[in-house]
Amino acid sequence: MATKQEAVEAKQGLSYDVTNGVAVITVDQPGAPVNTLSPEVGTAFTTLLQQAERDPEVKAVVFISGKKDNFVAGANIDFLQTIKSPADVEAVSRAAHAQFDQLEAFSKPVVAAIHGACLGGGLEWVLACHYRIVTDSPKSVVGLPETQLGLIPGAGGTQRLPALIGAQAALDLILTGKNVKPSKAKKLGIVDEVVPVPMLKDLALKRAAELAAGTLKVERAHQGFKAVAQSGKKKGIAGLFQGLLSKDLWAEAALEDNPLGRKVMFDQARKQLLKKTRGKYPAQEKALQVIRVGLESGRKAGLEAEAKAFGELVFTDVSRRLVEIFFATTALKKENGTANASVKPREVKKVAVLGGGLMGGGIAYVTGVLQGVPVRVKDRDDAGAGRALKQVQTVLDERVKRRSLTRLESNAKLSNISAGTDYSGFKSVDLVIEAVFEDLKLKHQVIAEVEAVTGENTIFASNTSSLPIGELAKGSKRPSQVIGMHYFSPVHKMPLLEIITHPGTAEWVTATCVDVGKKQGKTVIVVNDGPGFYTSRILAPYMNEAAYLLAEGADIVQLDKALVDFGFPVGPITLLDEVGIDVAQKVGPIMEAAFGKRMAAPKALEGVVSDGRLGRKTDKGFYLYENGKKQDVDPQVYLLLPHGKDRKSLDASEMAERVALQMVNEAIRCLGEGILRSPRDGDVGAIFGLGFPPFLGGPFRYADALGPANLLRKLEHYQDKYGERFTPAPLLVEKVRAGKGFYEA
Question: Where does the 3-hydroxyacyl-CoA dehydrogenase C-terminal domain start and stop, copy by copy (predicted)?
Fold first, then answer.
């Protein structure tokens, strides 16, 4: 009969076995797809360590996961949400410190055998082990992503990682929250060895025995760290916060060990950090402070600072919003995009892409390279087909340069993509993604041509950004297999895929396209049909309002800065240049025809377009460009706008509010009209597709934080001042009358 302690260990998914004098502690939490760290898990692990310490037969310990493709995914975020006060969070952090200190000081060698994701608390766990081996699997990544949740590492990571790999590399990982692949982890010194998957356990057992016997000695602490075996030879994967600190800051490594140099280094680091985050993300600042405390005052002080900061951050609004986004995207990964969870996607073995332009080439890349299925690109001429292949090659070349791919691997992935000017190769495709010019007549022609050369079960997906999918389906013999797949440019970097269904779209078609999007690495939302769908529709009034401000005499730089200060990654005028001023002009009439005068764009930009200023693609828009890089505003552009060069200094906060509230109000309209299926999808779509400030949680979380009644008053104020384009969404009025927020049932 199992003892009480054995029952606790089993509940936490921990098991203990001894093989040839090495205790193997396996974590495999029952009923969970991944392992997570909690106080109970830590306590059970410590108890097993003590058992190993008492057992004279045991000379060393191996720590391994029983999951197929996961080591420890991090701390249990659900558990953190149940804690009631910062002091209680601090206590949890201190308990983890004590447990990992015991692990680090353990009298017998402990080897971490890592396969799959080793993130957050999982990495902090293994950092306290004495030797770390990771598999060379693409599933294996290590990192401390806590800042992406508005937190910092709370189990010693802010202290152990800098001590192991140096402040420069540790700050880069902690402040950005990015993951690193096995080869990079070894190069940095986070792990000692990278091995093939089948060898992991056996080699871990061997290394544990060698460490116990003294035939394997480890030198580290970022002082030329090496693991030397008996023979004397070495044994041999966002986002939001990338590029926070300049590499020039770390040009002199000795700064870390020099008190005066350290002060200069951290002061400059904070200055650069605030330039990027604009003070909107407190976790990064806290991380910088805590790491500095540890380097200047020692680990004990650093751990105490870490626990205090961790406790404070869990209860910030920023962390709450970022955690909500995390839960939203996690939930979306489990959904098939339909109301019927039993609908299964069909296998997609081959894809065709129509159009070899910027979007077509990007779609070919995420399909052929990331999804990993053969892709056939068709364009109207050889030059277009060649551009698509060149675009894919360019992205692959960047990856080779960054050493995330070898040249051999790059060539193999490129071979998955072919291009031509006819429909050869289309007969066997399961999915056709169309990315041709935004013209309904042209798209109907393309649909007819495709259906004539493809099988009866082939799905036709349009990458249109504004034309209703139901209208496209009218040109099809198989309307139930017509759907929208709206990608965002640049396709290989933008995380969102917006799938649009019309009333007749078959459920299996939706589920299949959602599955394709996930395999391409996208966060996928499914919305219902309508002009502009969701993202293009809420972007239109946002951009229109910026144009109205230009017409009123706003300075371009001040207007862009106002929205960046609000939290958007770029200002609306910069975005207009990126999208293409001509593209925006074509979408405008479609939106106005559908929604009337409130969506009418001002005539202020007509002169800019007629002057041939299309934006970055022509090196001339509102800004000038040199070798693709944005320069200053072209002063001549003001001559094409009302008021000429006589610009007005408008209130920055009012400019930002006017532009942002247009997006929020339109999002609420989309929910009220059934375009959106939930506020959650609306928030995810706006953040991942349009750059709505993540720390605000999306349009609906922002509306709830403002208070629907307060939001209504603001819109009514602007409606009185500027007219019907600020008319409050009917659903907002309903929510205010009911006294409810958007996330309330």
Answer: 532-625, 656-740
Inter-residue contact 502 to 468 (CB < 8 Å): yes
d(CA 547, CA 509) in angstroms, rounded, equals: 39
438 is catalytic: no
Contacts of 710 (CB under 8 A, 6+ apart): none
Instruction: Give the per-residue pLDDT at 257.
Output: 61
Distances (CA, A) of 652 to 278, 577, 657, 691: 15, 21, 9, 19
Residues of the chain with pLDDT under 70: 1-11, 221-258
As a whole number of angstroms, the distance between CA 123 and CA 143 comes to 7
Contact between 566 and 692 under an 8 Å Cβ cutoff? The reply is no
Q: What is the pTM of this model?
A: 0.91
Domain 536-738 fold: N-(1-d-carboxylethyl)-l-norvaline Dehydrogenase; domain 2 (1.10.1040)
Contact 444, 475 (CB under 8 A): yes
**Type of residue numbered 99:** Q
Tell me the per-residue pLDDT of 550-574, one tens digit each, with 9 for 90 and over: 999 999 999 999 999 999 999 999 9
Residue 129 and residue 100: Cα distance in Å, rounded?
8
DSSP string, 300-317: HHHHHHHHHHHHHHHTSH
90-93 — which CB contacts under 8 Å span 24+ positions?
Answer: 90/307, 90/308, 90/310, 90/311, 92/39, 92/154, 93/154, 93/155, 93/306, 93/307, 93/310, 93/311
Residues 6+ apart with CB under 8 A from 600: 544, 588, 592, 725
Q: Are β-strands 482-486 and 217-219 bridged in parallel, bridged antiparallel, or unpaired?
A: unpaired
Q: What is the pLDDT of residue 240?
A: 53
- Superfamily of domain 351-530 in CATH is NAD(P)-binding Rossmann-like Domain (3.40.50.720)
Residue 574 CA to residue 596 CA, distance in Å, equals: 26
State how far the Cα of 347 lies from the Cα of 25, in Å rounded to an integer.
39
Condensed to tens digits (0 to 9), the pLDDT of residues 109-153 reads 999 999 999 999 999 999 999 999 999 999 999 999 999 999 999
DSSP letters, 160-187, are HHHHHH-HHHHHHHHHH--EE-HHHHHH
Q: For residues 210 and 111, give the distance between their C-alpha atoms in angstroms, rounded to a whole number.
A: 11
Structural element, H or E, at residue 589: helix 581-595
State residue 270's pLDDT score.
87
Instruction: Give residue 581's pLDDT.
Output: 83
CA dihedral (241, 246, 247, 253) positive or negative: negative
Dihedral in degrees, nearest 10, Cα atoms 459, 462, 468, 471:
-60
Determine the CATH number of domain 4-224+243-315: 3.90.226.10
The reported pLDDT for the residue numbered 408 is: 95
Instruction: Report yes or no: 501 and 475 within 8 Å, Cβ to Cβ.
Output: no
d(CA 668, CA 735): 10
24 and 16 in contact (C-beta within 8 Å)? yes
Radius of gyration of the CA atoms of the chain, in A: 28
CB atoms closer than 10 angstroms to residue 398: 13
Q: Catalytic one among 193, 434, 498, 666?
A: 498
